[in-house]
Design a protein that fits this description.
mainly alpha; 15 helices; 78% helix; globular
């Protein structure tokens, strides 16, 4: 629907997803660190507000570049919502209850991730595509009001100096990686890897990663403490999270597969995700309870 209104190519349209992911990548470590320095509530409310502002910009956009701008703001704000919410669990729940609480958050996140395309299909069938973004505004307002009432407002007594150099290099290396991967041509994979549209950005990622590690080793308050990666538990968690991320990302394409390969109607394709919704609603809280019980 957006492509039809603004008359853009499929390659250009893909930036609606790519720019969101890019700014989400940058926003996640930044907002998590800011919540450590200035408190959970203020950063969480700011993240939700940014997401709402981005949604409004998209809905009112007169041109496609404005849509991209709104998506960037959306992604930047959304980057902090999940990690800050998880950090609140660590601040407010005793150790023996954290698994269940995180499992519940995981269930809500997973259900929202999967049920979003279903609701989107219903809304798009009843109204303009702009309402896919306008509907975020009242939801964000409710979340902000509840956050101001319920989230802890504590903050450290002494705010450490922010690692600006580390954040700048981290943003650049994530941007290089995301852009390089986005430009890979899957129909000519090997040749595209060494093309000028991909290889320079992947090389920049490697160089910036080395520079980032050196900066974080010297930083008094690093964006990402490197000591975290020396723990086996963190390594296992990262591997599991990466696998889960790949699987969840691929779920978005199941409705398209159903339409293209199985002859399912477009209006009904999103409902093919319902079994996943039910499984995740049961699996995430159960996993959290097992974590509390068995460690």
């Amino acid at each position: 629907a957006i492509r039809a209104q603004f008359q853009v190519s499929e390659r250009t349209l893909s930036w609606m997803f790519s720019i969101y992911v890019l700014f989400n990548l940058v926003g996640t470590p930044l907002m998590a660190k800011l919540s450590d320095l200035y408190g959970r509530r203020i950063i969480y409310v700011m993240d939700v507000s940014l997401f709402a502002i981005g949604s409004l910009i998209i809905a009112l956009s007169p041109a496609f570049w404005v849509v991209i701008l709104g998506r960037a703001i959306q992604g930047f704000g959304a980057g902090g919502i999940f990690p800050v919410a998880s950090a609140v669990i660590g601040d407010t729940f005793p150790v023996e209850k954290r698994g269940s609480a995180l499992g519940l958050i995981g269930a809500v996140f997973g259900i929202a991730f999967i049920i979003g395309p279903i609701l989107g299909g219903v809304i798009l069938g009843l109204a303009s595509w702009k309402w896919l973004f306008l509907i975020n505004l009242p939801i964000a307002l409710v979340v902000i009001v509840m956050s101001l009432r319920l989230l802890p407002a504590t903050r450290p007594a002494h705010v450490k100096k922010f690692d600006l150099a580390g954040m700048a290099v981290l943003a650049a290396l994530l941007a290089s990686l995301a852009y390089g991967i986005n430009q890979i041509d899957t129909t000519n994979f090997i040749a595209s890897l060494v093309s000028l549209r991909v290889l320079p950005f992947l090389l920049a990622f490697v160089v910036l990663l080395v520079a980032f590690i050196q900066i974080e080793k010297r930083a008094k308050s690093p964006i990402i403490p490197l000591s975290l990666f020396s723990r086996r538990q963190m390594a296992v968690a990262n591997v599991i999270s990466s696998g889960a991320g790949v699987i969840e990302a691929s779920l978005v394409f199941l409705p398209l597969l159903a339409v293209a390969g199985l002859g399912v109607r477009e209006s009904a394709a999103s409902f093919m995700l319902m079994p996943l919704v039910l499984a995740m609603a049961i699996g995430s809280p159960s996993a959290g309870r097992f974590l509390d019980k068995f460690g």
